[in-house]
Write a structure and sequence with these properties.
single chain; alpha+beta; Jelly Rolls; 3 domains; five-stranded mixed β-sheet; five-stranded antiparallel β-sheet; extended
């Protein structure tokens, strides 16, 4: 036994695979080995899925490609069991010519992103000539991984985990990336719970409630100094935005004053007034004699004194309303109690608005919340589906054209799924009439900026390929995911 422990530092024993609550398995075999047919999957008390399909005939080695999506608050471990069906050769000469390394099946797991064409280093590699299992350990958060499988005649991949995950193709994974991550929802919910406790107990002692609000809203990394004050202003502005959207209108002066008392921020609306006011509105509201003239030094000094006086009155009023036991505090507490049911009508939506407003603010510190690491994998997509019609002309055919208007700077990527191999997607900037760059026939993900005319997405294909393709396959859908 002493030599055994020196030779093997780690011994993994897997038993009772049905004890794992989440399971997925995928199988693909060469068509002359096993016909394409669905196989039975799952067991009582488990979440499981399987599929059996045909591998590509291109090349001596058969390949498969899948996606793995994991989103968890805790570190997760996924057991991958990989079985490869290999061609050992029928004669002694064939067995001698093929080395063991070239015969081995390979499973490789690596991070994946639709935002870039660059490949990342693999997290796990399994090589086997029969069957082998390994554990993939992932930190908390959202992860999107690609699973590349290579085998001679076929393979079977089985995944087990105590945490939920998704294993399949793009159609199975992309809808989950359009949603907020688990850490995002948990962070937003903790913020809203702490804020609700302060609102409901606003007329009582607030020291403990405000301290409890600081923990989820203002982490220790920025609780002091200039960064702390800036972040509190960002949070206060997000609270105002959430309440405005919950009520579906602008806040009345009484409601705005109550929000200032809740956040203890007399300057809450100063940035909002600067943002939404325009010079034309200011000129339209000025008397006719004041238009097209510069104020004198005496007038400027008088306005400065008035503004300072008004600011002092407002600051004293807000601080007085934020202290329990005062008449102003009871009035603000009643106003907040009348506003809060609109927030509680859909807490998940409004908590998301609160946190999104914080993260979208330019002054928000990068890496302030753990959920910010998950935003890099978040994406939305839109499908454009159209049928292909058989043509006999030997020319390029325009089968898809769409003009997209970009409201703000956005990172976009386009991908084509088509039964016709010879097809090309072009993206043209309608302002400059320039085509966006491509790499290896694929559109490079890039940042699209707002313009006047928009971006035109066109897809062309050669009719000669359509003519030589099986006509029955030409009526399948060709979709562009953006």
């Amino acid at each position: 036994m002493d030599h055994f422990t020196k030779c093997f530092q780690t011994l993994l024993v897997f038993h009772k695979p049905h004890s794992y609550p989440y399971q997925r398995h995928q199988s693909q075999f060469k068509d002359d080995i096993l016909p394409s047919s669905p196989s039975k999957s799952g067991s009582n008390g488990t979440s499981s899925h399987s599929s059996v399909g045909q591998l590509s005939h291109q090349g001596p080695v058969k390949r498969g490609f899948h996606y793995l999506y994991v989103d968890s608050l805790q570190p997760s471990k996924i057991l991958l069991s990989f079985s490869a069906l290999l061609n050992w050769g029928e004669t002694t000469e064939e067995k001698r010519e093929v080395s063991v390394g070239s015969r081995a099946g390979v499973l490789q797991v690596q991070p994946h992103s639709w935002r870039t064409l660059e490949s990342q280093s693999p997290l796990l590699i399994i090589r086997t000539t029969s069957c082998r299992a390994a554990v993939l350990s992932l930190p908390p958060g959202r992860h999107t991984l690609s699973v590349h499988v290579r085998a001679a005649l076929g393979y079977h991949v089985h995944l087990y985990s105590m945490a939920p995950f998704v294993f399949g193709d793009e159609e199975a994974v992309l809808p989950h990336l359009a949603q907020e991550s688990v850490r995002f929802r948990e962070q937003a919910a903790s913020m809203l719970r702490a804020l609700a406790s302060l609102v409901l107990g606003f007329s009582r002692e607030q020291t403990a409630l405000r301290t409890a609000l600081e923990e989820p809203c203002c982490p220790q990394t920025c609780c002091s100094g200039l960064e702390g004050r800036t972040h509190r202003q960002v949070f206060n502005s997000a609270v105002y935005t959430m309440l405005s959207q919950a009520l579906g209108r602008k806040l009345t002066p009484e409601e705005g004053f109550a929000v200032q008392a809740l956040t203890a921020d007399p300057l809450l609306f100063s940035a909002d007034i600067t943002k939404h006011s325009t010079t034309s509105e200011a000129v339209a509201g000025a008397p006719e004699g004041w238009q097209d003239r510069q104020p004198t030094d005496r007038e400027t000094h008088a306005v400065t004194i008035l503004q300072a006086g008004f600011k002092g009155v407002l600051t004293r009023g807000v601080l007085k309303a934020s202290k329990p036991g005062t008449k102003e505090n009871l009035t603000a507490s009643k106003t907040l109690a009348d506003m809060w049911p609109s927030v509680e009508s859909d807490p998940e939506k409004h908590s998301s608005i609160l946190l999104c407003s914080i993260l979208a603010h330019p002054a928000t510190i990068a890496g302030l919340y753990p959920c910010q690491q998950d935003e890099s994998s978040r994406m939305a997509f839109s499908d454009y589906t159209l049928p292909l019609v058989q043509e006999t002309l030997s020319s390029w055919l325009l089968v898809f054209r769409e003009v997209l208007l970009v409201p703000r700077d956005m990172l976009l990527s386009a991908k084509v799924f088509s039964p016709v191999p010879c097809c090309q997607l072009h993206v043209i900037n309608n302002d400059t009439l320039e085509e966006l760059p491509q790499a290896l026939g694929r559109l490079v993900p890039c940042v699209y900026r707002p313009n006047e005319v928009g971006e035109t997405h066109t897809k062309t294909l050669v009719s000669l390929i359509l003519r030589t393709t099986n006509p029955s396959s030409l009526m399948t859908d060709d979709s562009v995911n953006t």
